[in-house]
Amino acid sequence: MSEATEATEAAQATPEPTPEAAPHVTDHGGGVWGVKVPIPDNPLGHTLVHVLDTDRGPVLIDTGWDDPASWDALAAGLGVIGLAVADVHGVVITHHHPDHHGLSGQVREASGAWIAMHAADTEVVVRTRSAEPGVWFDYMSGKLTAAGAPEEHVAPLRAARASGRLRTLPGLRAAVPDREIVPGELLPLAGRRLRAIWTPGHTPGHVCLHLEEEHPARLPGNGRLFSGDHLLPGISPHIGLYEAPEDTRVTDPLGDYLDSLERIGRLEPAEVLPAHQHAFTDAPARVRELLEHHEERLTGLWRLLAEPLTPWELAERMEWNRPWERIPYGSRNIAVSEAEAHLRRLVKQGRAEAVPGTEPVAYRAL
Ligand SMILES: [Zn+2]
Ligand SMILES: [Zn+2]
């Protein structure tokens, strides 16, 4: 938050503000800037919203969390570059999560900009907006019970549902995109070559955006890649199930993610501009690290399945960033979803199977 305040002050104090004057804006050269937009109460700290100059006006890649302080930081960052929110011509969203798509509606209102997203994530936005919150609570309690969650974990969900005190979920008011990002195609941006690369895994419709132009500092490699949450320098993104009540498709998000990673590695971009942390080079090395990390993790889980375990029991035994007892309630749900995504992969690989006749279903190694 203090960064936002500093930036606002810097923007007001200097008649012709330069990016150097405000540490929350980075000039990446060649008509590309990064603006740090804070995520309130989140250890990730901020979303890097990228600004791409086009012949028709600036285009944003992601917008940031829907919060007044985040909005101020975005507006101040654009001010540092010499732009106003009203100038924004279009918004390209890497995926539907609220730290990326949260402010899109407000940007569209202020500027008339179009909003583009991959169809699979637009489907999630539309579904979330139209769902009655109760449907979500019923789905979550049913899913957790089926995953082997103990009664004391599921009971608060049922109690909240029964009392009608249903917390508003982020994303409930998210803007419905008005353009579709088509995988493999160039986005219609005047004077720029920005190609959409579909990278499902973190969400079903996650895209990376490949700027097929020479690197402004002539770094070796193929252009620059806006990688969203797909490829981050120091974090392995959360891969859970594609949570979708009423969807009966058996998806394999971790398999999708690993395939998408290899695809990005083969692009060999000169530089990666991710949506969190910081820009980095040598994408193939980072891809290898992540592939090895997931392979090790899958093998570790396969060993744990020497005894049959439900997804909940597996989550309790997996390695997290803190002991299971200290993982907060909501994060446990995310952890179970991650355990299930790993189980799906092991089953697909023929390394595990559901034990017939178990309820909740337990899995064992093969
Ligand atoms: Zn995300
Ligand atoms: Zn994110």
TrEMBL record:
Residues 1-32 are annotated as: Disordered. It is an enzyme of class 3 (hydrolase). GO terms for molecular function: hydroxyacylglutathione hydrolase activity. SMART domains: Lactamase_B. Pfam families: Lactamase_B. Its EC number is 3.1.2.6. Residues 1-23 have a biased composition (Low complexity). This is Hydroxyacylglutathione hydrolase. It comes from Streptomyces lavendulae subsp. lavendulae. The gene is gloB.
